[in-house]
Amino acid sequence: MNFKMILAALVALTTATAAQADPKLKIGCTTTTDCSSAMVAVDEGIFKRLGVDAEMVVIGINSNIPAALLSDSIQIGGPTSPTFLQAVDGGLDLVAVAGASVMHESTGNHTAAAYARNGVDIKQPKDFVGKKVGAPGFGAFLHVMFVKWLSDNGVDPKSVNFVEVSIPTQGDALKSGSIDVGLTGEPWVTRMNNAGVGKVASYYVTELKRTEPVIFYAASRAWAEKNPELVKKFREAIAEGAKIVNSDHEKAAQAISKFTKQPLDIVRANKVSYQQPEIKGNDFAWYVDFMTKMKLLQGNVDLTKLVLK
Q1: How far apart are the C-alpha atoms of 163 and 290, rounded to whole Å?
Q2: Which residue of 170, 209, 223, 272 pairs with 182 in a disulfide if CB–CB is 3.0 to 4.6 A?
């Protein structure tokens, strides 16, 4: 066999191997329990069994997820509903591909909190006036829900000084006094409690008593339509992962601990966001209604186009 024949054989072998390799999929989420169905699907080998080489990627600020999707640094991300809707309203062609966490009376609504540092006394909504509040992404779920809660309780959100602080850095920001309150969630609340940073001032999402999606899985429409088989397998993996999260706390805790880098005992001690893999356009109607009234949206959201068919 001459050199050209050997080279041709190597090229053919490389091409065949590449064709047989599992498609790669990067899934970007923040370090909360909201994307636990994907974490479990990776940790339990569900994606691998379905022939998908999936990797979880940490995104520090939720509002960065739409840009990460469009740049293809991740293919699927877990934006909060407000982040996603503002991106779509602003002209980005994103689409929901599967559900993740929802507001749920037994779990999800009690994981989000306004956490006050030591020395800051907050007993009622009006006590937040003049405080410096750290939000993990302007326009993301924790921020928008807090603004909604303040408004519902007669407090002008403009009277609160919001600054953008990622959830993992809020503990240090609270201890240093650079913020008075952090909008955060579990397992970070328990970790800050154990460190003596402060205390929960309000489980404000609980008081809203809603059941809409908190975080779900989204992609650029172009990528999703180009990769229908990969989206199908992703949905299968998420459905299986969600069942495990909702029924097996230990497996969920182990997967969450690995991704968030939180001690396993802290994750074990807390409830995990309820996972609901099904999602439809009307699930966003409540958000669109109040966000439009609060001028957080300009009216460019079509509910019928938000979810990939």
Answers
A1: 22
A2: 170
pLDDT in tens, 154-185: 999 999 999 999 988 999 999 999 999 999 98
Domains of the chain: 22-102+212-305 (3.40.190.10), 108-208 (3.40.190.10)
User: Which residue in this structure is represented by tokens 């740049």?
Assistant: 71
φ, ψ of residue 302 in degrees (nearest 5)? -105, 110
User: Are residues 274 and 102 in contact, defined by beta-carbon separation less than 8 angstroms?
Assistant: yes
Q: For 23-27, 109-113, 199-203, 269-273, which range has the lowest pLDDT when averaged over its residues?
A: 109-113
Cβ-contact 33, 259 below 8 angstroms: no
Which amino acid, one-letter code, is at 118?
N
CB–CB of 209/106 below 8 Å?
Answer: no
Cite the DSSP H helix spans in 201-275: 204-208, 221-226, 228-247, 249-260, 264-268
Return the structure tokens found at 56: 């979880």
Joined together, the tokens standing for residue 301 give 């959201």
Three-state SS at 173: helix
